[in-house]
Design goal:
By secondary structure, this protein is of the alpha+beta class. It folds into two domains: 65-122; 127-248, L,D-transpeptidase catalytic domain-like. The chain has helices at residues 12-21, 44-57, 65-75, 89-101, 113-123, 229-238, and strands at 5-9, 39-43, 137-142, 147-152, 155-162, 175-178, 181-188, 193-202, 205-209, 225-227, 244-248. The strands form three sheets. Strands 5-4-3-11-6 form a five-stranded mixed β-sheet, covered by helices on one side. A four-stranded mixed β-sheet has the order 7-8-9-10, covered by helices on one side. β8 and β9 form a beta hairpin.
């Protein structure tokens, strides 16, 4: 199909309409708008180029641009990414999607240290290192990479996501455990806070939705496995009393 050409006087307002709302929002300048406006042919392709360039320019290039592009390409599922270290509209969209998925703030497409750290941890997680049971469900926690995932019948069931475990004098212990208590919302007496989607597996430690910003690296849990809300809900929907939890590795700094 031939591209239809639209002749218009491309004013600043018209350009803004193209960028903000696409061709459907494009308005023609009134006749006799003045000598300052020029009549220019605008095609759908040209308008798309304008939008793409505008979107790319609004998304800054971060220090770890190329590394993040590489990790997102390896992970897959976030859209088209070109590994060249140059920010594009497609790269920006993919990075924002990734940031929103893993609760990274602000989610504006900048490939900064937090985005780089999370992408690297997820992309380098080896799910087979969990050595799950051949039958049934195993919740896996990699203390070294601060990631967690779920295996079912020896195969990956829920992809790795980020977590935050204990540090300093509250390390999350490595070992093989069983879920022994589940409460949709558990009250913590020592710390006076609600723990949503609580699934205990040893002592006073268990999975639950984080009550603070997960990516604050200077903080840790008091031994629990902190999860983002959507992951805590997912784990809750899967978990049952008696299911296996395998914790291995060691959190950096502990």
């Amino acid at each position: 199909m031939a591209v239809k050409r639209v002749t218009a006087r491309l004013t600043t307002a018209a350009l803004a309409a193209v960028v903000g709302g696409g061709l459907g929002a494009f308005a023609l300048a009134p006749a006799g708008a003045g000598a300052a406006t020029r009549t220019a042919p605008v095609t759908a392709t040209a308008a798309t180029t304008v939008v793409t360039r505008a979107a790319a320019s609004s998304c800054a290039t971060g220090k770890y641009q190329k590394q993040v592009e590489g990790y997102l390409k390896r992970l897959g599922g976030y859209g088209t990414v070109t590994v060249d270290g140059k920010q594009s509209a497609a790269d920006c969209t993919a990075i924002v999607k990734f940031q929103k998925r893993f609760g990274i703030q602000p989610a504006k497409g900048l490939a900064g240290p937090t985005t780089y750290d999370v992408a690297k941890r997820l992309a380098t997680t080896k799910t087979s290192a969990c050595k799950p049971k051949k039958k049934g469900v195993t919740f896996c926690v990699d203390l070294t990479r601060q990631t967690t995932w779920v295996m079912k019948n020896g195969k990956l069931s829920v992809k790795p996501t980020v977590t935050r475990t204990g540090m300093d004098d509250y390390e999350t212990p490595a070992g093989t455990f069983k879920i022994n208590k589940r409460t949709r919302k558990e009250w913590s007496d020592p710390y006076e806070v609600w723990l949503p989607y609580w699934q205990r597996f040893i002592g006073g430690r268990g999975f639950h939705q984080t009550t603070t910003y997960l990516h604050d690296k200077w903080r840790g849990s008091h031994g629990c496995v902190n999860l983002l809300e959507q992951d805590a809900k997912k784990y809750w929907s899967i978990g049952k009393i008696g299911m296996t939890v395998k914790v291995f590795g060691r959190r950096p700094g502990t």
